[in-house]
Model the fold of this input.
Amino acid sequence: MANVDKSIAKHTKAFRRAAKFAGVHDADTCVASFEHRLKDMYASELFHTHNVYPTINVERVYAVIAMCFELRECGLTDAQILNSVERAYDGKRRMHSILLSSIDLLPCSYAIVRRWNISDYKNRMADGSIDYDFFEVREHSFEYRISGCRYVDMFEAWGIRQLCKAFCETDTRSYACLTRHVEFIRHEDLSDGDSCHDEVLERAHRLHAKPTASAHTRTFLSARSRDEGKPTMRKTARELLEAKKYDLLITMLCDCFGADGKAKIWASAERRLDGFLATTATVSDGERMHAEGFIYPMCALFLAIAEYCSREEARQICADFMRETAQKKGEALQKLLHAPGMQSLFMKCFGLLGSRLFGEKAGFEQRIYESTTRRLRMDIFACPYLRHCTAAGAPEVAPLFCANDEYVYGNLPGITFGRSGTLANGANRCDFELTRNQD
Done:
């Protein structure tokens, strides 16, 4: 009962924001009516029938349904209702946007999105909350079609199926924050169509995408593959080195060694990277994202460059390239954090993101001491960047990755970055601290 009362209070507060945004006359009476309605809906037999899916926050779904009824009785159109409901959870939406915008800065953002969607697919299939016609994973894209959705069923049970678009639009809003490396295409959604049909593509390969994929480039997530794990489709060495992020390095190598020299270096790096990729088959998915997306490509390039100059000169070329690339990311993040409220949201989201991207499942030994909107403090005691760089015979590259943190986080507005040492530079740990300055 206490949890229900707490949920009603939380969603009533959210509805007050929606009513205020909608300009509802006599908002206090409307809010009181919403609170009473939501309490009755939570006590209904329908609620208990629907509240059996672990992946769905049914309390929130019912709160949104109640909001739709109240706002409709106030004379709002469906479009006005949807806009107002979105404003009800504005704080949560902004926090979600800043998290996605931070992920958007990462070159591996498509890989993160792909992994999240596959994980969500598995969880939805496990609890029966979504009925998939198919879920297909290709090398640089994935696609799915949904013919049954318990979100839609709940809205339909209350006679307002079309207003389920409040949840259907969540994906569209989310992908609007992921524009650098990801492209989202919605063909149809279940709120007003026969299915929900979406495609997600890796933007770097969008221009080269074929209309359909052959059996050799398409992976189907069948019941068997769900039991065995995620698809094993991975990029080749050539595809990894074709990433747009290496365009600057290509220019630098042409300046230093000429076009022929650059071509020889690139061919050598590809051969080396092919060998490195053969060693990552047994590591976790999280660690593989770091190893294949960042560590081994840079190690292969460093070693290939060192064939045509000294190792120190090769290290300096890689350092200059990585510094300029990281500084651009830092500048983009600085612009983002100048917006009101973004610094606090960034701190909150970075704590969540950091624990996942740099945790045990990604090959790190991590200890987080504090994670609030004011301060994040953690130590890394084992790091796959140092481990894989050393294994590749390129330990000089590991400190360059450490320096990226300074370039990205060292000049953020209103946030101070602190570090005393790193494992790659001989310390017994990598300490990482972000402190948001007092308002």
Residues 103-228 form one domain.
